[in-house]
Amino acid sequence: MASLEATQRKLRRFSKLRGKPVAAGEFWDIVAITAADEKQELAYRQQLSKKLKRKELPLGVQYHVFVDPAGAKIGNGGSTLCALRCLEKLYGDKWNSFTILLIHSGGYSQRLPSASALGKIFTALPLGNPIYQMLELKLAMYIDFPPHMNPGILVTCADDIELYSIGEFEYIKFDKPGFTALAHPSSVKVGTTHGVFVLDPLNSLKHRDLEYRCCHRFLHKPSIEEMHQFNAVCRPGNFCQQEFARGDTAYLQLDSEYVYTDSVFYMDHKSAKKLLAFYEEIGTLNCEIDAYGDFLQALGPGATIEYTRNTSNVTKEESELVDMRQRIFHLLKGTSLNVVVLNNSKFYHIGTTEEYLFHFTSESSLKSELGFQSIAFSILPDIPECSRKASCIIQSILDLRCSVAPGSIVEYSRLGPDVFVGEKCFISNSYIITKAVVPAYSFVCSLSLKVNGHLAYSTMAFGVQDNLKNNVKTLLDVKLLQFFGVSFLSCLDIWNLKITEELFSGNKTHLSLWTARIFPVCSSLSESVITSLKMLDAIKNNSPFSLNSYKLFSIEEMLAYKDVEDMIAYREQIFLEISINKKQSDLEIP
């Protein structure tokens, strides 16, 4: 795998920078992470501070968390504008000479709820010592960018990874005015869920690993017909690779048609200032702006205004949206979009529970290229090598007699002697000390809560394939929701819960598993996990388990009451215990 070597080199280079001051121009001047609300902002600040204390990040860099204003959702485009204003407030004219990495991490991660409380960018990876989280991986993968970048901002999302390989003496330059985006070869089908570049024709007959191209126009989540209509589809034949790299790009054979899809993009300081001036002028945003769909579609000589009226990809059609898009279009029209084509590259999205399970426990190319470990910074029984490979244990302590079936992930947890974890489970932040069976395909994640000034715990438990975002408008339609493959109505019956408006928190016209008050609040972490496992067990065996006597929270409420300090302390405790154990083991080795 050509890019394996390149990826490992970046990881080694980053590892050397962890906990050490960086030289001027060697690394980012500023790393900024966006947060959706003040609760999330606090959680991110606390984790960043711990990381810096533990020397897990390069020093001498300004790390910031920028929170979206309270009120309407503003999307990652709105968050970008808001971040620009924060930079201006903090640095005045100084930021015109900075290289800045802006990571969008403001979502509530409903498709990977283990990241909901502490953030996608702080999600653990089975790699490194101490454990890497998504933040470190991002910093490692982009380590070659800052020295070859003019002052400006690189915009990326917290839940994707780009791996690429270029010539030994080549490097990616971000030195052109306007915007510059990375592009990856992908199947036409993948193009329908991404941004797609319509590139000017290539002068050369042969493709190289790294090409600088001009973009005629940018299409956001186009249909297959639109890709053909606007000449975005490339025909096979002149591609010199043996095959396309394999990522989310869905394995491409030589005879496949393909398109170039987006991932991260850079804007020079002048473009950033133009957007900031626009934001200052409008004052308050009341609609969701997409940094990709609404900024990039305005760029390139072929850009036209039609997309501003297309709201098919929009979650909520606010009255202001079309007007705001048109204003952004006129603001950015005529700005160039340069594209860095990486023909030997892969784009991976790991924002869902199923994607996590796949990339961490199966023989995925991401796992082999990044060198993901089956056991990362953990204490566990001496299980046979063949069983180890199929599961993934991250910063956890497992008893000698505990058993974890293939395809499962355990992170930041303690499991006692008589615990059996079924296949394809995801267990996070949990403590199971008594005898317990975790049914196959279970998702179990515990949160520390502060309720009326007292510490409490609640554990969300459901099926890994359950759709927490799926919502219905009325109580009559609750029967359409599914919990662990069973009608939610049947589950409520088994748990002895009545269907009333009180059963759901938040918006009463968006009823979902996310807002269902079904998870018991307990006084200890272990009791919380066991009680939620009994709920699952009752569904699996169709046997009654009454939740009537418990105080119940929805996941939405758990996040509102989360005690970040206690959750970090629990992880810290596990970290120290493993560190001491490892030191003792090292001393015992003659």
From TrEMBL:
Signal peptide: none annotated. Pfam families: Fucose_pyrophosphorylase (PF07959). GO terms for biological process: GDP-L-fucose salvage; L-fucose metabolic process. InterPro entries: Fucose-1-phosphate_GuaTrfase (IPR012120), GDP_fucose_pyrophosphorylase (IPR012887), Trimer_LpxA-like_sf (IPR011004). Residues 92-523 form the GDP-fucose pyrophosphorylase domain. One of its GO terms (molecular function) is nucleotide binding. The keyword Ligase does not apply. Keywords: Nucleotide-binding, Transferase. This is Fucose-1-phosphate guanylyltransferase. It comes from Marmota marmota marmota (Alpine marmot). The gene is FPGT.
